[in-house]
Amino acid sequence: MDLNIILYGVASIFYLIVGGKIVSTFKKRGDQAPTWSLPVIAAAIVAHFWVLQSSIFCAPQTIWVTFGNSISAICFFSTLILFFGALYSRVHALYGIVLLIAGLGIWSPLLFPSDAQPIVGSTMGFKLHIAFGLLAYSFMLMSVVQAVLMSILNSRLKNHEALEEPEGIVASMPNLMTMERILFRVIFACFVVLTLTIITGMVSTVHYLDALLAFDHKTVLTILSWLVFGILLLGRKLLGWRSRKALTIFWIAVALQVIAFLAYRFVLDVLK
Fold it and tell me: pLDDT tens digits, residue range 81-131?
């Protein structure tokens, strides 16, 4: 059996086991993730890294960016970031849900094969552009999960269920203001990395096309998403935007960014 298939299976099973355990553990406030979870996640991340790099860097001096590889990379960066976060702070349901997503997302290169040609002889600037772009999507994935959890908690408060004994994932959630603070920290990180994505993209465009910007749909939608994220952060800082208004603007920014690259690659690689 191919070693990569074995590593896919090992990483996927480890992600799903730990993710399921974390989610199921948080049924009452104060419960902690099991102590064995971090070593198991570390092993899964190492296995994931091996199959991911062999898939993206499929040959010397080449880089293969497909829909499947992108989804796998986004899951990898998300679990890696949250892993380091878990070393210094309490694990929340957010990590468990992201691990469950990663347990399925790791199979994307096999589930969504592509006949797209690898990019040969790419510059370091272009590789950084791709890396920052995938990292931005990783922060966006975490912010999406956090926004959904926050919406669940907000809905519970509006339905006057806060006085009842919390159950399930809700039991592990901090208060709404803390949830919002976490969400905006992740959004800020996404905005910073997205800024670096745009800058490195400009550098690559100058190198390849001798122009500052390539006015295609990916560039336009990415810049629009960046602007909307920036407006959201400014609105939060200066005008105190919260709850429904903040989430509405957030989902607009997310939609623009998803269409900019992931939806485009999905059409090219899967629907074609």
Answer: 999 988 877 767 788 899 999 999 999 999 988 877 777 767 788 888 899
pTM listed for this prediction: 0.90
Block residue for tokens 């994307």: 108
Cβ atoms 241, 232 nearer than 8 A: yes
Q: Report which residue type is found at 159.
A: N
In degrees, to the nearest 5, what angle opens at C-alpha 253 toward C-alphas 257 and 181?
A: 120
Residue 5 CB-density burial (10 A; 0-12 exposed, 13-18 middle, 19+ buried) = exposed
SS3 120: strand
Helices (H), the chain: 3-25, 37-56, 67-88, 93-105, 108-111, 124-158, 176-209, 217-234, 243-257, 264-266
Q: Which value, to the nearest 10 degrees, does the dihedral of the CA atoms of residues 106, 107, 113, 114 take?
A: -10
